[in-house]
Design brief:
Helix content is 35%, strand content 15%. It contains nine helices and eight strands. The chain has an eight-stranded mixed β-sheet with strand order 1-2-4-3-5-6-7-8, with helices on both faces. Residues 186-207 are annotated as: Disordered.
Length: 297
């Protein structure tokens, strides 16, 4: 059994073009070793708070979490409306360098997994092992055109009607198992109230998922040649309960493009959480699997 510990995070910042990136350090960075380097846990658009439980299962090594550009505390200062995966990757590089670490182990979830793959394709020397958990890489899916159209419709719904109606469509997308039918975007919109979402538009348009990420994933193309050539050990992972949903299907397809088998993790897309953002997973079992995967480096 993996012991759950509580360590108070120490917050620091690093200046990046157009944003101040906030990151949190748990533990003594000087205790990192070649066999157990700093472990970074990154999401997108989810901020550092989503990793509070998972970080507690790695009390034997320093753990770093961060708020990606445009989310949480890392507010953009350049007025740009959207953030591309390449920008997130450069922000990750800056954080790693600010830590004084030659390289790190990196666990990326969802959009964080996509951004981490971009980081490795550009700066492979900075990452020893990458565990990319359910990166929403739309390009590898047979139904990619339909998924891209659905994502564009979710973005348009957000701009037109606000968070509730758009998030209801997003939930319907990520809960659907198997390839999307061609008419998925034309189906009747789900009622936001069924998911406990607001039905009234509050006028805000600053949600990083619905306003930015939902469009960036379908548009991005990974550099598989660079990933294959990288010295980084890349492990692509999917949740046992979510492997048939879009991010899980994408993970399995990305692993195939890299000539590898995906590693199946306990639970679902948010399997490492224990109530953060309302998601209940199996964090202890998830952490044990992550520890086993990292120890095989």
């Amino acid at each position: 059994m993996t012991e759950l510990t509580t360590r108070e995070p120490v917050t620091a910042t690093v200046e990046a073009p157009g944003a101040t990136i906030h990151y949190d350090v748990r533990g003594d960075l000087s205790r990192a070793t070649a066999d157990a380097p700093v472990l970074m846990m990154v999401g997108s658009p989810m901020d550092a708070s989503g990793f509070a439980t998972l970080a507690g299962y790695f009390g034997d090594r320093p753990v770093v979490t961060y708020d990606p550009r445009g989310a949480g505390r890392s507010v953009r200062t350049d007025g740009a409306a959207e953030t591309r995966p390449e920008e997130h990757a450069e922000d990750l590089r800056l954080v790693i360098e600010a830590l004084g670490a030659d390289r790190v182990d990196l666990f990326g979830s969802s959009g964080g997994a996509l951004n981490a793959l971009v980081l490795v394709s550009r700066h492979p020397e900075r990452v020893r092992t990458l565990v990319a958990h359910e990166p929403p890489v739309v390009e590898v899916l047979p139904d990619r055109a339909v998924v891209a159209a659905v994502c564009e419709d979710i973005h348009d719904t957000y701009q037109r009607s606000g968070m509730g109606p758009a998030m209801a469509k997003f939930i319907a997308l990520v809960q659907h198992e198997g390839p999307l039918p061609d008419d998925f975007a034309q189906r009747p919109a789900p009622d936001p109230a069924l998911f406990g979402l607001p039905t009234e538009d509050d006028g805000s348009r600053d949600d990083p998922l619905l306003g930015q990420n939902i469009r960036n994933s379908p548009a991005h193309r990974l550099d598989y040649d660079a990933l294959a050539a990288a010295p980084t050990r890349i492990v692509v992972a999917a949740g046992r309960e979510s492997a048939a949903a879009m991010p899980g299907r994408a993970a399995i397809a990305v692993a195939a493009r890299l000539g590898a088998e995906p590693v199946m993790f306990p639970s679902h897309h948010g399997g490492f959480m224990s109530g953060e953002f309302g998601m209940e997973g199996e964090p202890e079992a998830f952490a044990a699997t992550l520890r086993r995967v990292l120890s095989q480096a």
